[in-house]
Design brief:
By secondary structure, this protein is an alpha+beta fold. The chain has one domain. It contains four helices and three strands; from the N terminus they run H-H-E-E-E-H-H. It has a three-stranded mixed sheet with strand order 1-3-2. Strand 2 (71-75) and strand 3 form a beta hairpin.
Length: 136
Amino acid sequence: MEKMDAGNWRTGLNVEALLREKPELFEFFQAVKIINLLKNRLERRGSDIGVSEAAIKFSSLVSHSFPASNIASLEFPENSSDPAEMQVNFMGLAGAHGPLPTPITEMILDQARSKNHGAAAFLDIFNNRLIQLFYK
């Protein structure tokens, strides 16, 4: 009986570096689990943690498009105790996937073009909690 050759398997792959460089390659649940492991914050599913204690701050991309990946962007802060910031494509109050009407999405996009991100930031207060609950 022959041994299977592991020569074509990836070796020496740094998952953290890959997540930082190309977060769109990861599924949402996989990326959140990796970030929690990296930040040593193993929150039990169903646990109720405060926003300041969370390893990740979530926001939602406001767009009319239907992107192919779950994660739009991922930013790791300079200070490792601060939460990572993940922007998702699949859930949010405004945009193609959201329940708010199209004119609201248009208003938010128009404001963003004018460098006014107030409405989107306000909705992200709710999006953050909504996505946290979705993960749990």
